[in-house]
Amino acid sequence: METSSFSSMLLFQLLMLLPAFIAASTQPKMSQTYIIHMDHSSKPDHFSDHESWHQHTVNSVSLTCREDKEPFLYSYTHVMHGFSAKLTPCQLTEVEKSPAHVATYKESFGKLFTTHSPDFLGLKRSSGIWPTASYGKDVIIGIIDTGIWPESESFSDKGMSKVPARWKGKCENGTAFIPSLCNKKLIGARSFSKGLQAAGINISTEYDFDSARDFMGHGTHTSSTAAGSYVFGASHFGYAKGSARGIAPSAHVAMYKVLWSSDTFASAATDILAGMDQAISDGVDIMSISLGLAQTPYYEDVIAIASLSAIEKGIVVVCAAGNEGPSTSSIYNGAPWIMTVGAGTIDRSYLATLELGNGLKFEGTSYFPQRVSISNTLLYFGRDDPKKSGCVSLSRTEVMEKVVVCDTTNLTDLYGQMEVVSNAGAYGAIFLTESLFLDPEDYSIPGILLPTRYGNEIMEYAWRNTSIVKSMQFVSTKTGSGPAPEVAYFSSRGPDPISPHILKPDILAPGVDVLAAVRPDVPFMEAGGYDLLTDYALYSGTSMAAPHVAGVAALVKAVHRDWSPAAIRSAIMTTATKGDNKLGTIHDQWNGLTATPLGFGAGHINPNGAMDPGLIYDLDTQDYIQFLCDLGYNETQMGAVIRRSQWGCHNNHTDLNYPSFIAGFNQTTSLSEKQFTRTLTNVGAPGSTYWASLEIPSGMIVSVEPNTIKFASKYQKHKFVLSIKLDKNAPKVNYGYLKWIDDHNHTVSSPIVVTNY
Ligand SMILES: *[C@@H]1O[C@H](CO)[C@@H](O)[C@H](O)[C@H]1NC(C)=O
Ligand SMILES: *[C@@H]1O[C@H](CO)[C@@H](O)[C@H](O)[C@H]1NC(C)=O
Ligand SMILES: *[C@@H]1O[C@H](CO)[C@@H](O)[C@H](O)[C@H]1NC(C)=O
Ligand SMILES: *[C@@H]1O[C@H](CO)[C@@H](O)[C@H](O)[C@H]1NC(C)=O
Ligand SMILES: *[C@@H]1O[C@H](CO)[C@@H](O)[C@H](O)[C@H]1NC(C)=O
Ligand SMILES: *[C@@H]1O[C@H](CO)[C@@H](O)[C@H](O)[C@H]1NC(C)=O
Ligand SMILES: *[C@@H]1O[C@H](CO)[C@@H](O)[C@H](O)[C@H]1NC(C)=O
Ligand SMILES: *[C@@H]1O[C@H](CO)[C@@H](O)[C@H](O)[C@H]1NC(C)=O
What we know:
Elements: H1 5-16, H2 18-26, E1 32-38, H3 50-64, E2 72-76, E3 82-87, H4 89-97, E4 101-106, E5 109-112, H5 117-120, H6 129-132, E6 140-145, E7 186-191, H7 194-198, H8 218-227, E8 231-236, E9 239-244, E10 252-257, E11 267-268, H9 269-282, E12 286-289, E13 291-292, H10 302-312, E14 316-320, E15 339-344, E16 348-356, E17 361-365, E18 373-380, H11 386-389, H12 396-399, E19 403-407, H13 415-423, E20 428-432, E21 447-450, H14 455-462, E22 468-479, E23 486-487, E24 507-510, E25 514-517, E26 525-527, E27 530-532, E28 536-539, H15 542-559, H16 565-574, E29 587-588, H17 597-600, H18 607-610, E30 615-616, H19 621-630, H20 635-642, E31 661-665, E32 673-682, E33 688-695, E34 700-705, E35 708-711, E36 717-726, E37 733-741, E38 747-756
């Protein structure tokens, strides 16, 4: 199952190359695409709406600069007030002279963070949040992604309730997409590509569909994960066989396609904003975003700006944290109003068995997609030559039609080796490795990954010239394996680079080998010389984790219609699971050691608990405004993020009422104390009394005042102060928990993280 980690990483690196590509393709032109933020209240009365004012602004600067082009892209109403347009330096200068001008952002480009998981999350038909939330009935999840494959069984509307009357969205006509493909499950489908086209990238049918139809399969996968209908007998070539369904199987889905695979995968900030703007205007309840722009301050991060606008309208925004782990400070989409999701493993492994001629039997990881069986085949190990033993280069005559053993000690990836073995005409491969993975689609010949601890036994036997593989068998899935969840190798880690004093990610959700719908009409992979197609496939990435959380947010929303996005996030975070299925703490797939909240946030998502958290840490727009003031933003920067010309902040630093704690200490300074003030709101029964329980390791000294709180009524609020002192010799990252516990089975848990660099 670990094999998939690299798919997302590879994809990631591909995408990293994008800015260079764009720069090259736009070089001859003088004009560039900009997002222009305007003061909404400055619109002269004679314009009937903001769009005509924006268009007029662009037209008039074009006249002034003697440009005859029509470079207008989008007018934005909700995510920010302003527009995007392709402008020459002269036009830009003129636009910026306008007294209504607030800020300018250069076009930038985003990257994708690429039937069992509901069971793993404890979702049941008989009890818990599924029946209570009617499976997410009447909730609308907007997915900002690569499009959707509407014919997939996951988007069948059998048994779906009618489209909510408040819905204003629609399904647009386009290439290979007619509006009648939508139904009561898929209720919106739009695409946004003006920004990409303005950058000189062609949306041609060769590379993508000029419509909401999914070319890559990614958006189909994320949509079906969040809200796919029940599909019986889905599998990845026989692996993970079972029924596939989304986390909120009765919720409605609306697709906003902003990510295109023209030449390479690309999404322009202008298009992302347009998609988010439309989603807000259409009336989605939840937004799920599995892509990210650069890590920049919030006043330059249009996803952060647009998300704050969505939050103000009560929309929960869930974003993938990025796939740049295990490096620290690699979090994307970490603004404190966003729910930032890391990826964890699930308790399922994909196996092959190996029996050698000497009777030794092994079980290892494999995703080889066919039920082949290899028997009585010669084994090869090029022991005396590191190039051969490491499968860096093999002699065709030596390995032809044999099973090759590869010692991967000195290697950093396995893709090349799989290719070398396959090209040399071998029948199969045995990789001895502890930390290297292969993607499911890379098993072009029968291959098995075995831990290096078996290495000596196998190599010893294999280098004898008469050694054989007695049998090798594929396509076996084992559930309940573990430990799981673990923080996925690739999942981005905190602290957040922009706001290190807010703990990110917020939550961990399944993001490794997630089975969901894909594009069915193009080969998923090639094996044994055949192109293989599939309706459902295993994908990995924080891209896959975010829609799980979007689905849970939809369920919580269905139960508590009046809760704010912060309340829903608090409920999800404070009820998260801290342990794994082997009754230990969550580990890190990267090094096998105990993970920290910098990897898993508040813990692993626990949908049934989120329904009834007892207490919440709530936040409103004014809290976020005060947070931005406390960051020291000046008027221009504030105006850009909060889209207002007036706001109120006081000078005293105020703690954001966040459901987690992180304190950064500095090893060179002497012992000091940090204090956090928080406010709890009772959303459980009146008359509840909560006691503070601290689980704190040595090296940290934590106190809570008061440590008993009685809530006389529902929605009553109480403040408390948490103080942290640090022992000078404490480890670099240390963490514990504050748990508010009542006598009705509520445990309201928050991680407390202390860094001491
Ligand atoms: C729908 O889009 C297709 C492809 O772009 C086009 O051929 C067709 O005429 C459009 N139909 C309508 C009703 O606009
Ligand atoms: C885009 O594709 C069309 C049709 O394939 C072609 O005529 C045009 O030159 C392309 N434009 C660019 C910028 O590549
Ligand atoms: C790995 O590298 C070490 C040191 O360079 C070398 O001695 C050894 O033979 C190499 N092993 C393989 C399998 O390449
Ligand atoms: C296997 O064969 C190779 C070359 O044919 C020879 O060099 C090597 O000594 C043989 N190994 C054994 C264990 O017989
Ligand atoms: C705020 O800071 C930015 C960046 O330093 C600067 O460009 C801008 O002029 C400042 N605005 C105000 C009102 O000081
Ligand atoms: C700010 O802090 C000062 C000193 O601690 C206190 O007297 C004042 O009331 C605070 N103001 C607000 C608005 O909290
Ligand atoms: C720690 O404090 C010292 C002295 O004030 C300062 O020079 C250093 O940059 C600080 N380090 C960090 C990581 O903040
Ligand atoms: C608390 O949970 C336990 C085990 O889940 C259950 O047996 C008990 O009835 C619950 N108590 C209350 C007050 O809900």
